[in-house]
Amino acid sequence: MSSLFEPTLLALAAAVWLMVMVGMVMRSVRATSYRPAAPHVEEGTRRLWPGRLLSVGNGSAASPGAGYRAIAARIAADAHPNAGIILIGPNQMDAFVRHHRGAPVYSLPQGQTHPTALKLQLATITAPHERMYVIYTADARQADPQHVIERWLDVYTFKSSDERVGDMRWAVYEVGFKTPVVAVSRGAKFAGRDGETITLVEHSRWPATARPGNIAHVRMVWESDKTPARRYEIFLQLLDSAGRVVAQRAAEPEGGWRPTTEWKPVNWVIDGNGLQLPADLLPGLYALRISLRDASDPTVRLAVEGSDALDVGEITVTVA
Fold this sequence. Notes:
- By secondary structure, the protein is α+β, with helices and mostly antiparallel strands.
- The protein is built from six helices and 17 strands.
- The chain has helices at 2-32, 64-78, 93-97, 115-126, 140-143, 148-156; strands at residues 33-34, 83-88, 105-108, 131-136, 158-165, 168-174, 184-191, 197-206, 209-210, 215-224, 232-239, 245-251, 269-276, 284-294, 297-301, 303-304, 310-317.
- Strands 1-3-2-4-6-5 form a six-stranded mixed β-sheet. Strands 9, 11, 12, 14, 15 and 17 form a six-stranded mixed β-sheet that branches. The chain has a five-stranded antiparallel β-sheet with strand order 13-10-8-7-16.
- Helix 1 (2-32) crosses helix 4 (115-126) and helix 4 (115-126) crosses helix 6 (148-156).
- The longest helix is centred in the N-terminal third of the chain and has 31 residues, at 2-32.
- The N and C termini lie far apart (65 Å).
- Residues 1-22 and 37-62 have low confidence and may be disordered.
């Protein structure tokens, strides 16, 4: 009799645990978020654009106050209508919101948060936003020693920029998974240089229609029959109707957190990636391709289905 009820009891226990975790996450998010008043840039600050030195007035970028003031000015100048801000590090909320008005600010992690709970917090925080500004303070490594936050963001969002401001970093992530996307089972096999076989188990991409400057998101599930001896990069390319490359990007899996030399045989690796469409891209139909290439020799691509690249769909670019 006990064996008959054991699966039911386990399932019930799992359901109760999940409800408790979700409840804790929702309470934690509500307790640790802060939404300042209407957008405002302090008098005396300068607009600062990507690639420029982040310094304001006579302040030094090494000073947390000057760094926060510079980042807040950048966010205000961006004026994104649906953005959120994550502060990684303890006791930084008051220091940052002194210079910021507008988008809601979330402080993570809160104490010794279990990685599963932290991932649920991230999913809850990012869900309503289209863009996240993430500030990695000087204490970020101590606060999140397993890099749970950054690794989750590298899989489930697209990092469009990453800069250093004194002893802090701030990165911009585009959140694209807003509508249901059907994963395509593929099973395409890439021939590794040392005899291994790397399989693209499935992939999903979105959106089907985009505008110049938008992000073309791709999520892939990989596995290898044995651990590769070499590091491979995932190489995305967008081609026009004449076969010309109009955008491309290469990156190691999970933003470099899961290099192929650390893959375990038959274990799935989920990788989020994407391409930013050029701002001057003409309307039309474009093809998206995936390759695997040797990180130490980018001219070498792995063979797959009689070619060195795999077509994974098309994107329609419009200007309307």
